[in-house]
Amino acid sequence: MNIVLTGFMGSGKTAVGRILADRLGWPFVDTDEIVEKNEGIKISEIFSSLGEPYFRDAEARAVAQAAGMDKTVISCGGGAVLRAANIDALEKTGRVVCLMASPETIYARTRHNDDRPLLRVEDPVKKIRELLESRREHYKRCAFLINTDDISAEEVADRILDKLGMK
Ligand code: S3P
Fold it and tell me: Domains in the chain: how many in total?
C-alpha cells in the first residue's frame, strides 16, 4: 500500500511527502522526477520543445510506474488528475490524498521558482485561478482532501497519518 499525494502546484506535496516518507521510513518518489529520468530532459524542456500532450503521455507512464511500487510515498504532478486512468491506477495500490490551497497561497509558494512552465505567464494569479477552476472536479474525486493554507507541512503530515490510521 502506498500513500499518494495529489493537488495543485504549490499545494505542499513535496514538503509533506518528504515528511511522511521520513516518518514512515518509506521511499519518496515524485512523478515529475520519474518523467525527467525516463525522458532524459527537464519538464520545462519537454513543454517547450515537445509540448504538453507529449508531457501528459510521459506523465501517464510515470504514474503507472509509481503505482506499481509498494510502501512508497508518491507525489504526483498537479495535472496528473486530469486523466481518470491515472487516478484509477494510483487508487488500486494506494490511499490518494489531495492537498488544496488558495490561489494566493499557491502564488506565494511558487513565485520564486520558475520551473513550472504553466505558470510562466504574464498574470500567474489569473492563470492559477483558471487552472484551479478547470481542475476542481478532478481534485474533488479524491477520497480525502486537506487544505494547507494555514497549517505547517508537519501538521498536514500529522493529519494525513491520523486520517489513514497510521499514527
Ligand atoms: C503541472 C504540475 C507540475 C508539473 C508540470 C505540470 C500541472 O508538477 O507536473 O509543470 O499541470 O499542474 P507540481 O505540481 O509538482 O509542481
Answer: 1
- Considering the domain boundaries, does residue 167 fall inside one? no
For 72-116, the pLDDT digits (tens) are: 999 999 999 999 999 999 999 999 999 999 999 999 999 998 889
Looking at the domain assignment, is residue 45 inside a domain? yes
Among 11, 55, 111, 118, say which to mutate for ligand 1: greatest number of ligand atoms within 8 Å of CB. 118
Is 166 among the domain residues?
Answer: no
What 3 state SS string does 65-127 have?
A: HHHCCCCCEEECCCCHHHCHHHHHHHHHHEEEEEEECCHHHHHHHHCCCCCCHHHCCCCHHHH
Q: What pLDDT digit, counting tens, does each position of 135-152 carry?
A: 999 999 888 999 999 999
**pTM for the structure as a whole:** 0.97
Residue span of the structural domain in which 34 resides: 2-161
